[in-house]
Amino acid sequence: MPTDADPTARTPQQQLQRELLRRARAKAAGHPPAAHDASPEARVPAPGDPARRGGRHPLSRAQRRLWLVERLGGAGDSYHVPFATRVRGPFDVAAFATALTALVARHEILRTRYTERDGEPCQDILPPPRTVSVPVVDSPAAHAPALLRQEAARTFDLAAGEAVRALVLRHGPQDHTVLLTLHHIAVDGGSLQTVADELAVLYTAATDDGSHTLATPPQYADYARREHDQIPGLQTELKQWSGLLADAAPPRLPLPAQAAAHDPARPAAVHTVPLAPQLPDALRTLGAERRATLFAVSLTAAFAALHRVTGDDDLVIGVAGTHRSGTAMRGLVGLCVNTLPVRVDLSGDPTFTHLLHRVRDALLEAQRHRHIPFDLVLDHLGATARGTDGTALVGVTCDVLGEPTVLRLPGTSAEYVDIPTDGAKFTLSYGLDLSDARQPRALVQYAPNALDEAAALATVRDYAAVLDAAAGDPEIALSKLLGRSTQPPSGNQPGPDAPQPAGPDGVPGARTQPVSRTAPAAQPTPAAGDGAPGSTEHPAAQALRAHPQVVDAAVVQPAQGPPVAYAVLNDSVGPSGNELLALLRRSLAPETVPAAVTLLDALPKTAGATLDSTRLPGLPAPSALSGPRAAAVTATFAALLGPVPAPDDDFFALGGHSLVAVQLAERLRRQLQLPLTGLDVLQARTPRALSALLNERAAQQSAATAAKAARKPGRSGAVRPGTVLVTGASGGVGAFLLRELAAQGRPVLALARPESAHLITAEGVDVVEGDLSDPAGLRDAVAKADAIIHAASTFTRPEVDLAAMDAMAGAWRRGPFVFVSSVDAYGHPEADQIAEESPSHEPVSPYGRAKLDCEEMVLRAAGTEGRGGASAVRSPIVWGAHQRLREQLRWGAIGRLYQSAHEGGPIEVPRPGTGGHPWYGAAWVHAAALARAVTECLDRPVHGVANACSGHVSWHDLAHDLTELLGTRAEIRETDDVPGDLDHRWHYDSRRLARPLRARPGEERRTVLAEMIDGP
After folding, report:
1. What is this structure's pTM?
2. Is the dihedral angle over the CA atoms 415, 419, 424, 428 positive or is it negative?
3. Residue 871 host element (H or E)
4. What is the pLDDT of residues 951-964, one digit of tens each?
5. Coil, helix or strand for 13?
6. Residue 173 burial (CB count, 10 A)
7. Buried-state track 542-567, b at ≥16 Cβ within 10 A, e below 16
8. Cα–Cα distance between 208 and 200 in angstroms, integer?
9. Per DSSP, what are the bridge partners of residue 870?
10. At residue 183, does pLDDT exceed 70?
11. What are the start-end ranges of the E strands in 611-727?
12. What span, in angstroms and rounded, lies between the C-alpha atoms of 587 and 583?
């Protein structure tokens, strides 16, 4: 069962692997025939050839946007580009692998990794690979959609240079589906046609054992460099283009009637309406008569439909522009697109023809500025181009979808295969789908957690109705095309005059929890606002009180500056003030959002039981920030954004954007030694709120450190005999390992990052500060220990995990070494029953591949140069009463199942027998049992691989357990579809460590799940 954040991703080539590992893997995978290796493009180019260019190159502006999305997290598969073709006829897999290898050799962008240097992202071109793997899976055609979706959804490791991967499904001797999955950072729509055309030529050359006549292609790094060098000269045009977009704002779309659980990947939903087959030609004629393209006509209909759903007259819709022009860019593979914001005035109830003229002129104006990167425009506009929640200007887009690209190989027929991705890049996208000339369609794709479903359904119908009506009579006014009502359909439309009460997750429309109320005192002035009818209480106070984890709240208006909110939680563990502030920003009008939310143990009261505002922290002088963290925050804001900010200046208003947020967080994290991320900065947004967040985290760190110091005196730097080094000690598994080692009386040296060291409080444990990315520190720690348990993992950065193991195995000179590995190392075996040390089977995730390679390093080193025995303990999902493990249950590999149960379902699970497999479910291990198994290996090494499973549970039974324990009683449905995160059907034999894995009282499945659910 995959246990990392991406359950099914496949490994990239890792630059830090030893050459022996690289050769061994290549030998195991096999290479194409020698005649194919002799292809000119398959050879490693000679020094000086373009394909051998190394060094760092700047990212294009479009690449920077995608790099930041990946860096901030939550993109899901929104920016994956699956390209699949059903190929019928003789298909040579080896020749296709040779062609794909040659394609990657020709185009540097397909073998480029993305790194960071001095705070700036850059791209490094890697050498051409010797071969590109093309796995082949035998699969009935009926099972292909699920396998293709699963493959397309697997994450990419951009830091390792993975931008393209292949999969071939063999349905019969002459019936295959060929899938290439590429990352959008490396390709755009124009690139796909080049990829398809060149693959056909290279495939022909490989099958004929001949050469090809393809010209040397232009390279994307040169394009990115030119764009980078031209940006300083764009300032005059940038100022002009930004001026035309001044004061524009994202459309105010109806929010969902019931807020969905937060999902950064924003899974997409689609609604379609069929159109008459003759309608596209009628629309082309309409446009030609008015000097407009079919795209402009479609875009006009989208504006009309958006006007209906929002009621706004000043609207912006984004369209895709391209930087491809001239013969110099012919054959270029890369991301050469740009978002063009088209701003149109819909006031005055224009006719469709009149509106078409407005749209055509606005579109031409946007295209005149297509060479100006969109993110530069956003940076220039600042906070005025964003919604109150930081949403960028373009949240709605429009496109016309033509005939899709297919892979046409000689001697075969080609059929396009559609693979829907789960992510929505934008809140709402309109499309005129002409991919099937016999059945055109109007469609909308939207993000269900950001747009009401009824509104989405209504707007696609409006879009189709406008297209149809305009073809018949384009001189009809908009009000008559769609009826005179301009009120939005169902959903919660946010507005400055009617803030919605917030519920459990702080968004409008969710249920509220009644709590006792306290009247605020008079000095400083209690902040009043547009709260409930008849109430003078500030709406932020009402929203905070409605949160199920808040028992009391107040908002006060200081003599200077904006309102400040205070909240009291019903438990010691709950949302931070920063998280509550982010929820208020999502649910309230901007003028009612306080500058910060400060958490208190209790609201201070006067003798008359009213709020004593004189005792509230931070008052009465909120205009000034004090303290070392406040000074650091202010200085870092100034260093990255220019002028010294006021305490309540907005990050976006100061010119901040995602990259600056990442840089700001990393600087403060290094300086203050406190955990902080770019997402924290984007949520806090002001120096005051960010300082408050850091103060909370510093207080937590200090309290834990003081409590630890009080429990035991400090020790000297001497390491005690028999000391066991434990990495990952501050994590969930690490906590149980420390507990077990302490119970056995073993001295422990725990490796922890500086900002997390205070979390280690177990008796008998010395802490050494270090990190997996510090090989020298790892070597020093290993040299001090008499035994090693390596349980740490980055989960998402395999190259760091490999470098860390290389350093540790190299420094290991005595005692046993136990590596906590993962069943992900088995990959996707064909058999359902997996014996210990069974060979791995593709696809193997980057996480699983890194575990395999780490195992090989330590097992190969065991018994040499004084080293003891080695054990690789492969673990499935780990459950236990620890906050990190609770988070894994809620948001990790099976997080979607948990969230569905938490929300009340319905929950869909694979039906037994689907795909020919009798069982689907999860292997799991109790953290305490895993700790016993791992420590057992210190005394009795297994000298190889051992599995560590407490049991196996079907998805149906797990869903039943979760719904009962959560009290939701959600409906559980069995389906013939197998989602990627539930495509697990393996039972793992655990005989070697059966004794320590035997369940003890309290380690039953239902018991541990109850502990995890009932915990904070």
Report:
1. 0.54
2. positive
3. strand 870-875
4. 999 998 999 889 88
5. coil
6. 8
7. bbbbbbebbbbbbbbbbeebbbbbbb
8. 12
9. 817
10. yes
11. 724-727
12. 6
